[in-house]
Amino acid sequence: MQVYTHPACLAHETGPGHPERPGRLNSVLRALENAHPTIDWQQAPRASRGQLLRVHSEQQLEQVLEHPPVELTLLDADTVLSPGSAEAALHAAGAGIAAVNAVMTQRTERAFCAVRPPGHHATQNRAMGFCLFNNIAIAACHAIDVYGLERIAIADFDVHHGNGTQAIFEHEPRVLFASSHQWQLFPDSGARSETGCGNIFNDPLPEGSGSTVFRASWSERLLPAIRAFKPQLLLISAGFDAHARDPLAGLKLEANDYYWITRQLCEIADIYCSGRIISMLEGGYDLVALAESSVAHVDALCI
Ligand SMILES: [Zn+2]
After folding, report:
1. What is the mean pLDDT of the chain?
2. Alpha carbon of 148 to ligand 1 centroid (Å)
């Protein structure tokens, strides 16, 4: 089990009052250091231009990388570019690449990428929803291109729908995307009827849903879809904003629900993926919930 991070990810500033703030990552790192003092920490390298271009357009790279702002600049209503954002985005994407290399060369079976900015809302052409580059999609494309994988499953339990990941892969049968999320929350996509080329599985949950509904959704619908796909590599978009304490959403999960879903996914990885499983931090905006939930998640990955 390895944990990838980089100090540059703390230098992506978003301004006073913004929920996607550096303190989030500090909270995760402190909690993991306390709970897992002997964990194998790894420095996340930068992603290369070629690795980013497997997913994103030249214009997208230019917007994020080529014109570092001297002060905070809004890319849309809630997505901010700061002087440190380009480096943070490069290392966040690079974490997933390095983790893919590590699991594919048997240096570890499992990895967690404690990075920011998050990624699952970023589309091929557009930074949005606090996300600059789609870190999980960049990791998946690296695994396909470099290691020739033919079946990669992405499980996304962030409370928001991973619209960017879905849009990037909806015509790509080598990637399955399975997501639970709160219905009619930002970005207002992720209906069950959105099925891509038969590779997209969405389960929108009503506001107020808690552990029972969440576990039923994964047990009855999303995990069976992943099992039937027989993935060679399992990736997780690990957002912890479906926690009951989270200020941005209205689901009612507790830290032990993240332990549960992570164990379920590890069991699938053990059967089909030679144990290979990589998780990347997405959302989660209450620092207490984020610390507890990320520890529960990593506890389950460490078993
Ligand atoms: Zn989210």
Report:
1. 98
2. 30
